[in-house]
Amino acid sequence: MYLNTDTNCFWITGLSAAGKTTLSQMLVEHLRSKGKTVILLDGDELREIFSNKSFTREDRLEITLKYSRLCTILVNQKFNVVIGVIGLFNEVHEWNRQNIPGYIEVFVDVPLEELKTRDPKNLYKKAEKGQIKNVYGVDLYAEYPKNPDVHLLWSPGKSVENTFDDLLNIIFKKIGAEITGA
């Protein structure tokens, strides 16, 4: 992990409904409360901006690498970036480590059965009925991070606030008080 106390890219990844957007928003609010300049990038919003309507592995890989390059540009311009995106490709994770200054990979690890109970977009339900294709965890293989800087493992009864506290505690240990304000 290449750490930078001035600017970092927090790449928050996991399957759909894992809590990436919620944790990303919480982290952005926390960093801003500590006086940091932060840009929030959300995978759903980015997909709309880039007009990506295809969900094949190849198309997902191509668009995820665009997100990575965008993060690189922003961090190089001294912006902290928090990005919540599925982006489950080992080659992307490796590219990010080599090319994004201050890259911090956060893996939100939630069992598929729990995700199916959440399923706010009904993706898992539709995929299991054959109504849609290319859904990670159903008919598309997810390449989970091999060595994330932060591995947030879901457990029954754990609140999002507790998970966020875990995230901050791990980041604090790895980066120090400068970035988290702890």
Write the layout of secondary structure elements.
Elements: E1 9-13, H1 20-33, E2 38-42, H2 43-49, H3 57-76, E3 80-84, H4 90-99, E4 103-109, H5 112-118, H6 123-128, E5 150-153, H7 160-175, H8 177-180
Parallel strand pairs: 1-3, 1-4, 2-3, 4-5
Helix pairs in contact: 1-7, 3-4
Oligomer: single chain
- Which strand-content bin applies to the residues? 5-15%
The chain-level structural class is alpha/beta
Number of helices in the DSSP assignment: 8
Strand tally, please? 5
Main sheet makeup: 5 strands, parallel
Corresponding CATH architecture: 3-Layer(aba) Sandwich
How many domain modules? 1
CATH superfamily: P-loop containing nucleotide triphosphate hydrolases
Share of residues in helices: 40-55%
Low-confidence stretches: none
What is the CATH level 1 assignment? Answer: Alpha Beta
- Predict the CATH topology: Rossmann fold
The H/E string reads: EHEHHEHEHHEHH
Strand numbers in spatial order across the main sheet? 2-3-1-4-5
Shape: globular
